[in-house]
Amino acid sequence: MKISSCFLVRFFLLLSVFFTPSVAVDGFTGTYGINYGRIADNIPSPDKVVTLLRAAKIRNVRIYDANHSVLNAFSGTGLELVVGLPNGNLQDMSTNPNDALTWVQENVQAFLPKTKIRGIAIGNEVLGGSDQSLSEALLGAAKNIYNATKSLKLDDVVQITTAHSQAVFNNSYPPSSCVFRENVVQYMNPLLDFFSQIGSPFCLNAYPFLAYMSDPTEIDINYALFQANQGIYDNKTDLHYDNMLDAQIDAAYAALEDAGFKKMEVIVTETGWASHGDPKEEAATVSNARTYNYNLRKRLALRKGTPMRPKNMLRAYVFALFNEDSKPGPASERNFGLFLPNGSVAYNIGFSGLKSSSATSSFLSLKDIQHQGSPNSYFLVLTACAIVLLSLNS
Predict the structure, then answer these.
(1) What distance in Å separates the CA atoms of residue 229 and residue 301, rounded to the nearest whole number?
(2) What InterPro entries does its record include (predicted)?
């Protein structure tokens, strides 16, 4: 059958209707992302980092500030970026709405739409920390930054979040027993109420590595590394957990439900395993780091939820892109990177480094969309085609 040009026009117009982007704000495409920390003096330039990310086909990236050299390097790449408002800016942004507006104008609006800034993280691991002044400023800063995005008509483009450490929880074992700490609730509940109103997720930095290190005699390392093990059983929910990360996430869901926010999604904004550490950090080895990160990739590729929230597809940002040799603290803090400063892989978990980046522009192939894009895309294509075929027979 010969297809007329008029028919083709109608067909593509119909497809365009189905593929019109949703106005809902979602700062994460697919299931896998990475943290691009830069507390180091030996990592590649932002331009080379872009090449590396595209070679590795990692689309979702978080940074901890809004460095303009990074934002410029990401322009036109298709990579999706969450920028950070550092903790040092929280008090000013909380008390000065005009400063919040200026910050968003200079660090977000000025780079859109070429740089795909999908979110703003307001501080990092503020609640549960030792600085009460930051805890007091967090909600005000989040509100003022959100109001700035709204006044600039960016609130349907950029998602507002903040990441929490597990220090906000009073108890996380078994998962169903988890609640927020008493000294955190006064700040957490109003923050959750605001995030619930604007549709933001609960962002959790979850580290089985740290949990295992805190109690290696009681915790099976295989449970922490997604390896075969007996797991744990939660009597209250009648749920079984075969890995610690799922349990940590469901602990967060339990705390949210206890606080009255049962429908809020949990996204993992940091997780990883150190490949080297101090003498007392015996679990920080290349072998364990490779095992954790390889199995984490497989876990995320399943595109499934946790035992407590099976319909909420798990999404996570791995920590981190590079080892950061200028970070303070124990040696493990400087050795979470998946890649070396020269762009090669630190250990093989299936990524390509800079040395094998011949197809760096192909990260939006069909195969990658299947892994990182929306699963609804295939349904939409089939639906559109079905409608076209029906119209031919009418």
Answers:
(1) 21
(2) GH, Glyco_hydro_17, Glyco_hydro_17_plant
CB atoms within 10 A of CB 204: 25
Is there a catalytic annotation at residue 125?
yes
In CATH terms, the fold of domain 24-339 is TIM Barrel (3.20.20)
Mean pLDDT of the region 190-196: 98
Domain ranges of the chain: 24-339
Q: Give alpha helix (H) positions in the chain.
A: 5-18, 46-56, 68-73, 90-95, 97-107, 132-151, 182-198, 208-214, 221-224, 244-258, 286-301, 366-372, 376-393
Residue closest to 212 by CA, chosen among 282, 306, 268, 155: 282
Q: Choosing from 80, 265, 270, 324, which is the catalytic residue?
A: 270
Q: Which of 80, 125, 265, 324 is catalytic?
A: 125
Is residue 302 predicted with pLDDT exceeding 50?
yes
Task: Judge whether 282 counts as a catalytic residue.
Answer: no
pLDDT confidence of residue 99? 98
| Alpha-carbon span 227 to 225, nearest angstrom | 5
How much is the pTM?
A: 0.84
Taking the CA atoms of residue 149, residue 153, residue 154 and residue 160 in that order, the dihedral angle to the nearest 10 degrees is 40
Residue with structure tokens 């008509």? Answer: 153
